[in-house]
Predict the 3D structure of the following.
Amino acid sequence: MSAAQWRKAMNFSGARDWSGGRVTAPATPLRRAGAAPEAAPSTAMPSVAAALGSIRLRHVVVLAAVLIYPWVATPFFAFQIGGQSLALGLIALSLTFLAGYGGMVSLAQMTVAGIAGYMVAIFGASSVDQISLGWPWWLAVLIALVAATLVATFIGWLSVRTEGIYTIMITLAIGMAFFYLAQQNYAVFNGFQGFQKVAAPVLFGIDWHDAIPFYHLALFWALAGYFFVKYLARAPFGIALQGVRDNARRMSALGYNVTRLRIAAYAVAGFIAAIGGVLMVWYNALITPGSVGTSWLINILIIAVLGGMRHPIGAFIGAIVFVLLQNFAIDLVDRERFNLVIGLVFLVIVLFSPDGLLGWWAHLRRWSGGAGRQARLTGRKST
Amino acid sequence: MTFSTTWLWRLVIAVPLAVFVVWALVDNARLFVVTTMNGITLAALYFLVASGFTLVFGLLRNVNLAHGSLYLLGAYVGWVVGDHTGSWFLAVATGFASAALVGLVLQTAVFRFMQGQDLRQTMVTIGLSIVLADIMLWIFGGEIYQFDPPSAIYGGTPLPIVTRYPTYRLVLLATAIVIGVALWFFLNRTRVGMMIRAGVDDRGMLAASGVNVQMVFAITFAIGAGLAGFAGVVGGTALSIAPGEDTRYLLASLVVVIVGGMGSVVGAALGALLIGVAEQMGLAYLPHYGIVVTFVIMALVLAFRPQGILGRPS
């Protein structure tokens, strides 16, 4: 994707804020980097009110639909399709954030998620008693999130030293190196077998590995991640990051510390991926080197590109399509040929629609466009 | 970095390394020499794979993540030909030719139309690597294939300290040196090589001076891909061919090129030597953390010289 395309992709959020002319001290965005939406300073209040005001009927309908979905669908659809899509979507969302807003395509997001998963298995309970420490689940999860975020920061620190296309090479090499390490190391990662029976906790009398609770758990974190990324995109940190993506030199001339902004983006994305990683290990109830193998590193990129990196929702759309293909491509072709199908789908998307399915959607709207849209606009005014 | 800190860093790296070498020689000289020999011959193979990767990257700015697939493709095609004709040398030739042909087709039919779109080209190569890997798995299955090289280059060669060493690995080393010298000669002494070098420095200027840049690109891609296919047969003979080897050699190429410097053939040789020896040393002396040695080298290079040891800053 060329710089011009990226720039076009950012117009939906960035352009207006830029023309507004932000003249505050350049140091502030960094401090807010890690802040969650609710912890944001009081200046965020009007934007919250504005966000509430912009809620449309379709938003309510979609939210209601995704909430009710697991009761309507069969457990298979709620867990294998719904739960898995949301967890994978969250990991892909971290890549969408990094690539779409930061212009850094990292292939190590699954590695970060996998490290979180491994930490949950190592510090929590699993069938491998001699390694797993059996600490309470909340402590294991806390350690997992911190460790994975630190690793993501380190990966960022290593890879921001070079630019553009090098990032993809370096992160791929790091991800593959971790895969081989997990495979050959028995003392910490239990080698080829990995960890089995990594149970999701039972809390408030609910087993969170059951289809409906897991779906809602994944949905909660997916929504949290989605709104967090949407918020960040409009926060000073996100705006500065998009500035770095479009012209790092100019941002640096404006007094921003480009390297720190980029590393902070890796840390934020790493945290999102870590949450997804914890969900994935609970979903699978196991983690093996295969979970962080090359094919999964690339699958996350496929999911993000499939949906489209213009908007955070693309990650989840991509994940749904990916999971559906994974489960039902078997019915169309040979059982073993899933990789061929997903590879071809990915090629078609990359060759013909660089903006993914969201790009097609935008194209469709433009095409059906002009007249219909005009009518809708005037219609709204008259009512 | 000032003069004294540079020397400090050199000491920090050189002293533990020297201590290790002395310890290893005293402890078990044979193991150390065999490991070093294995490392150097593995480096020869890594150089063959990575030189094509770096050549393509240097000129076309195309990070060809399907390079490992081309390696495996060359190996499989070479195996089929070798199996039918019984000639190992024919297998090597077809390994080179088939991968070069695929590379030529890819460059002229696909990548040519997305010039300058680095990320998109890379994603296309990712898609291609998935598709190629699955098609090869479909055709050849999960079995391990082995070549049957001529007996003259198989067997053992008597050497001091290690007593006997596989002849084929020495042949591999010699082949890599010959290919390396030939590549140097081609790039530095022929007209097309001059065009390629000029293209690495300034594509726009090369086109402006009346050279058919597309042809130079196609030739480079074909040679780069062909080298991967060639390495497939040569490396497949030293080790074996099986699914999954593609990602292994892709990782090797990536690390070698990141360490040695992107776009530099001499850098690829240096990086291959460093990584090959480090990998074998890691396997011999730290069996459960072997890959960490490779990773630490990569991280150190990225931390202190992001463009690679012999790379030029972008």
Notes: The mean pLDDT of chain B is 84. The first helix of chain B runs from residue 3 to 60. Chain B is about 75% helix and 5% strand.
